[in-house]
Structures are given as structure tokens and as C-alpha cells.
Amino acid sequence: MFFRPYPCIVVASNGRSGSTLTYDTLRKARNRRFWWKKQDYIFDARLQDAPLVPGTITKTHDFPDALRGRRNVRVVFCFGSTRDSALSVYSALERFGPKWIEDHFFHLAAKGTFDDLFRHDVLRQAEQVQRWATFEDVPVLCLRYEAIWRRQQEIADFTGLKFDPPQRRKRTPKEIPEEILQAASAVYDPIDEILAELPDIFPASRGMEETVAKLPT
Q1: Domain count, the chain
Q2: What Gene3D superfamilies is this protein classified in (predicted)?
Q3: What is the helix (H) or strand (E) element at residue 201, kind and residue range?
Q4: Is 20 within a domain?
Q5: Is 189 inside any structural domain?
Q6: Has residue 33 been placed in a domain?
Q7: pTM of the entire predicted model
Q8: Is the separation of the CB atoms in 8 and 141 below 8 Å?
């Protein structure tokens, strides 16, 4: 028998859609399984420069193109409401400060600044979903945020790791001015209406092109 290295698991997302929870759950399971070689937190801002070592788990907000030609890699792509994500970023300025905002915009290869958050899809969330949902060069499992707690066995089957996330907690309501809420809806509701057409969990494939091609990117 030949030993086949355990794949590198990449947890990607459009941001603020459950990727940290998914990553933490998988990393804990990985560390229990490979207890003699525990892994600390890994984040790869740019997959082109990432080692993607077999047997490790990493997190990213990058696009999938750099995975072409890579071997022994599997991806869990988490997606969710782009409106909720943008509002979460808005509130993060007060909670985490301008450096967090600067880093987040870099991680998502934003086309603009924080001031553009409710002018257009500055964080390219629609483009993230469009490209990951149709990427076939490596296995990609696309997972809606709300399905994280309902589709645990499918995630475990795909990753080869037990997937037992902590109990879902209701997200804390944030006090956001009405004009900001209206601006967020104007930009992101049309995107979310198209995302609602996607299954809760599905393997990325060209078969999703008809739906995601409608996304404004």
C-alpha cells in the first residue's frame, strides 16, 4: 500500500459568512486526528504564494485562479448574504478599528475603499461566488452560511474530518442608521436575490454558470 498524503483543506469565503467558524471546527478536528503534529492558525491572503502543505488547513478570501495546477487540495467555499456581510464590515470599523478594515479590504482584493461600501460591491462578493461556484480545477464544496449546522455529514464526507460546529448563536443585532440600511439594500439586495437561487450546498461546476452569470460583477 502506498501512503497518500492527506489533502490541504482551504476554507474560502466572500467574508463574514461563516468561514472562521468552519475553519476553526475543521482545524480542531484535524488537530485531534493528527495530535502528534498540531497546527496553529493559518491564513493565506494570496493563494498564489501559499504552500498549501498536504495535511494542513488554511483560510483565505482570495479568488480560485491560483489553484489551477495544484494537487491534493480541497476547498470549502462559504457564502452568505452580501448585504449582511457588508453591514458586518461597516460595524467592524467601530469594533475592530481601521487596521482590521484595511486588512479585510486587502484580503478581498477590494476595488475601492471603505467609503465605497454602500456605493457598489466594493469587496467583489458577487464575483467571489461566481468564480468559486464554477471552478472545477480542484474539488470545491460550496456551502451557504445557514447550512453549516444542517449539512454536517456532507461537510465531513468531503473533508474527511469530523465536522461538529458549536451550537449556532443568534448574531447580535447592530445599531445601524436607517440611511445606511437603505443604501445597503440598494446595492446588495439584487445580488442576494440571485444567491437565493443557489442550493444550500453543492459541488462547484460549470453547471452553475447559468445562475451565477446573472450576478452583477
Answers
A1: 1
A2: P-loop containing nucleotide triphosphate hydrolases
A3: strand 201-203
A4: yes
A5: yes
A6: yes
A7: 0.94
A8: no
